[in-house]
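Hi P.,

Sorry for the delay on this. The queue was packed all week, but I finally got your sequence through. Input first:
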Amino acid sequence: MTHTPSPLRHARTAALICAALMASPLRAAEHAELTVLHGWRMDNGHHMAALRISLAEGWHTYWRAPGDAGIPPRFDWGASQNIAGLKVVWPTPGVYAQNGMRYVGYEGDVVLPIEIIPAANGAIHLDGTIEFGVCDDICIPMSAHVRMDLNDTQTTDRDPDIAASLANIPQQVTGAVCEATPITDGIKIAARLGVPSLGADEIAVIEHPDVSIWVSEAMVTRQGGHLTAVSELIPAEAAPFMVNRSDLIITVIGGGMAYEARGCSGG
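Then the structure:
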């Protein structure tokens, strides 16, 4: 039986995290540095750039779905020009524990590739703000403004650091099956995937595209080559709701590797 925490509990957790952020007098720049890698123009006309986050020893930052103990990064590219689409590509994260809580993220240096689709031929003007947390015993918010022009005559030579990050993304898998069961204040998702074991410490993360929906830490069981991950999804109104299974992302992480299923069929 799974226990459903109340939304009030989620709010208290968020409030404690925010209080920790605001209490720190330290400057994030002392512990993390963000730089832009201009990358290359791809054969399909897209542009592959990247952000590099360099962290001081002992400090970490977070993956897109870091868990209750983490601060998810936020991107705002609204001031950009000549962009029809943009996708941040997330390399395989690590799983860590601190103060009895688990988080998913990165230590040392992490390169986040950004694939940009231009709206028309010509230069791309990338203009955005990135907000993310850097943490050790305390967490510090960091905000960086990124502005750069990428023209279509730029190099087609692949940046080795970006290429290495692209080679370290989760392996895509298909055939995931999700069973959805209404609960008092939301819905419970049981996702079943056929993926090899990533070791005794493997975890699974279920993501919903609406970030306002709280998703519990997944309970994981395994039978041979099949893994089942169960999470509770609770919206702000704390009531059952409809889930489009094709919008869900299920990621299995462990041992420096990851598998990812984008969408699942009905159970």
